[in-house]
Amino acid sequence: MNDEQADNLRTLLNSRNTAALGTLHSGAPYVSMVPFAILKDVPAFIIHVSRLAAHTQDMLVDPRVSLLISGIEQAGLSPLAIPRITLLGTAYQLALDAPEYPTARKTYLTRFPDAASLFSLGDFSLFMISPKEARWIAGFAQARSLTLATFARVIKDNQD
Question: What is the pTM of this model?
Answer without folding.
Answer: 0.92
